[in-house]
Amino acid sequence: MNVGSTNTSGAECASKLAEIIVDLQANDDEDAWRSVELHARQLADSLRVPNGPEDYHTLLGATTLPQDLTSLLSCALNGSSVPDDAHSPAVLEILRVGANLVHEHDQNRGHILEAGFPQAIVSLLEGYAENIPRGPQEDPLPLPIIHLQIIRAAVGLLLNASLGYEPVKFRLTSLEVCMTLVRLSSAIYPAGAWMRSTKNLFPVDSADLANSSECVVESWNVRITLSDWTWRVVSELTDNGHPLFDPQVLPYLAQPLIAFMPPRLTAPLPSSFVDSSHLRTSLLQADLALLSESCSHLESLALDVEEIRLTLAHDFQYPPERDGVRCLSAMINFIEQGNYPSQWYEIPSNDGDVRRQEKAFDNCKAAVIKAIVEVSGESKEVDVLWGSSEMNSGGEFISRMVDWIRMYVTGGRNANGREDMVICATLSLGNLIRGKAHPHIVLSPPHNIAQLLSSELLLAPSTDIKLKHGVIGLLKHLSLFSPDDRVTLGNSGVIERIVASGVWDERSDTMANIVQLNAIGVVKHLCHENPDNSIKLVLPSKAENHPPSGLSQLVSLINRSNDVAIKSEGTRVIANAVNSVWSKASHEEARQRNREKAMETLLTASCTDVLAALIGRSSKHPMLINEAVVALACLGTHHNGAPLVLRSLVEPLPLEVTPSVTESIGPSSTTSVSSETGSPIPTSPATRNRTPNQRRALDQLITVLRSNLSGNGAPSPQSRSTIAVNFCILLQYTARQRSGKDLDAVKEATGPMLEEFARSPSNEDLRKAARDVLSVWTPVHI
Prior knowledge:
63% of the residues lie in helices and 0% in strands. The chain has 38 helices and no strands. The protein is elongated and about 125 Å long.
């Protein structure tokens, strides 16, 4: 059949293809398909340059060409899922025409979509995917080069058609093409497969074997490009609101990780790849690109898709029968064993290229670490990761994480320690500490994690802040539940190590806010009802060149920080320490001496001032007010503490406290109204002499305690009653120690309120406490 000269225009080629379709309906012969191949090739070549001298794109898109391409592909397949060898060259050129027709041309993208061409391409790719063995493969799928080119052209067409064009993207997503593409790409180019063997690239009866050397190079190059284009399509179709994949994709995402681990990574290369070459460099780059895509998707899927997290956790404990791939195990192994290929350093390139590759690889590990941490935070699979059948040790996952921490600590500073593994382990374990039994498991043999976490290597001033974040976060979770666990942690030296870590230093303020707060959380829990731990925080270390005490560091941090959470939680630590130290005397002489030293250390204006400030800023948090009142009451029992407590109550609060107080205060303390009389309560002289808005902790307490009486509804009656009783106790202790203008100011401000409490008909405890205060204040005449 005459196919015309090579100078035939694109329009003429398109017209000729339309004529051939009519001929094919009458006579499907070899010459007709040869004509399709040649005319389609010439047309595809003429369309390669958009907006050239002959811009056929818009003109041809408006003709029957889009529908003709769909018809030609259908005729070539003739009911088969993939083309046979006779029709394959023509199919390749048909796909090239389609890919070039829609290149950067939205109008033509719409035309081919209306013609059903993208849908036909998806069906073609699904046909190839049907021939792939189930699950990821170690060896490349044997395919003739012509079929590799067809698949590559089909993927290229989908890429060109979808770039920035929502209708095609929507249709491809609805056809779930991404899973088909990943299965195909993973089979055609398994990462690192070239390191094992260069055989079996072609079927045994393939003509490509006759020219094996050149064909091997071409086969690898086509496979590399196909892998790259596949992930570009996936990236284009990615919509953060609608995940493209379900758990079926996990084994294929885990496959590239295995290529960067022993034994694959360290095995001898095939002879054809021993020496550096352009092809080997391309293969190394393709492996790294594939690894980056896999790790990025593992991270995003673990973050966004609950079913992915559940599957990863479940398959770790119960390997799936279908594929037998423990994806989470592969991810953990990759973090521990994955490494840079030695061939990177054999390529004649500048150091900048190698550093960029190392950075990309490190980013891959960081992404997988984030994925593992997300899986460990999945509440529905906590018991699975704890290994319910091995509760004594916590199971394989827990043991692996603890072992990572142990490896780092025992290796010491000169052992090239892996901080990333410790960060992953501490964050994951922190996520998994969900109940009272969990801390006990890891604090007990064989793990004994408290000794590891109190290592100087993990909490030195020079330790990376990300590592401190993981360690301190885990310590916070371990300290939450049991008094016995707090004893274990305290005895391991955790408090001293946190105090010496520098986390509360001023130089850490700008970068370590969350770490500072977590460290505060650790010591807050450890000091709760534990005098020994509290003493360790309050008193300076006896070590040579010791840092300032934890108490002094906390007071400095509270005073300089602008973060309300740090101020409030830091002050709660001091409240816990005061309450614990004052709780009971020790029968052991040495411990009692330390207790007395701690009491003297806590009896300072800096402590009473921050406790008073906590009252001032906590109008919406009655529990915090109560904690501060109880701590002040304890301090007030000491003859040196009473004047400090009284002064802290009547001194104006820091300016930073005032706005939060006035925003949520009920009736002003200067015009408080009795619920019984409705008459104003006179202000004290001290109040009248202060600048407006310069409130006192005493004013805050009065406002909070009166809030129910005046009908504001906050705090609850029970909370108000508890605060009121404890405040009365505080007043009793301070009144017994001394008199003076501060005590007089307290009496004048609180007297009317106490008289109301003393007449309370429904609360016996409050009535008695108020009467006790009034009786102490009332002089006895003889």
